[in-house]
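Ticket #4471: structure output looks truncated?

Reporter: J.K.
Steps to reproduce: submitted the chain below (243 residues) through the standard prediction queue, then opened the result file.
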Amino acid sequence: MSRNRLSLLLAVLAMAVVAVGGFFLAVQPQLAQTAAAHTQTASVEQTNDTSRSELARLREQAADLPAMKRELSTRATSVPDSARLSAFIDELNATAAAAGMQVSSFTASDATAYSPAVAAEPAAAGQGGATPSASPSATAGAAPSAPQAPSLVTDAAVTGQNFSVIPVTVAVDGSFDQALQFVKGVQGGDRLFLITTVSSAEKSGDDGAASSSSSWTFGGSIYVLDRSPDAAADTAAAASTKG
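Returned output as attached by the reporter:
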């Protein structure tokens, strides 16, 4: 092999080594940086999409915020965080006056802690049923089934730690129609008053004769929900203990 040919081969080999070295030293890092940049860009775009969706959701909630505040104020008035008996009595007097009646008496008992209702267990099969008859004759229709009790709805956030029941009794004087109007007004009033008992007694006139007016007594309960942080902490602790 001539000296010139050997020099040419060495030059070609050197060029190949430089090309390969240049790829690994310059091109490969650039390709890796480009791939990392694409990955980072995709991650940022995904984060931006999530942020845009969350921002849209927050905007929708912000649009509903005034209505939610009004509903919260209504519910807070219906079940306040303290007894507020004076305000409730004023409401009863106003409702009675609107019905043409007058509150003759009002009593309130001490508040008691709320006790969540427990669903009744279904009766065992065969209990409470009629004894089969030995007679071959059969009734024309099936016996009516007993009405089913409504399903109970409870909330773990409402417990005896923060929810109280105040039994109250209010008596008003007036006619039957006036009593109906009074009850309708009370049920639609600002304060939640659950009426559970109703009784009436005829009133006598000055001459001892029966009068068209009666004395109506309504018994029921009003409620108090303690919204303080301490009550919320006690409720959470009680729930975790039960859990």
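Triage note (M.O.): checked the attachment and the full token line is present. The mean pLDDT is 80.
Status: closed, working as intended.
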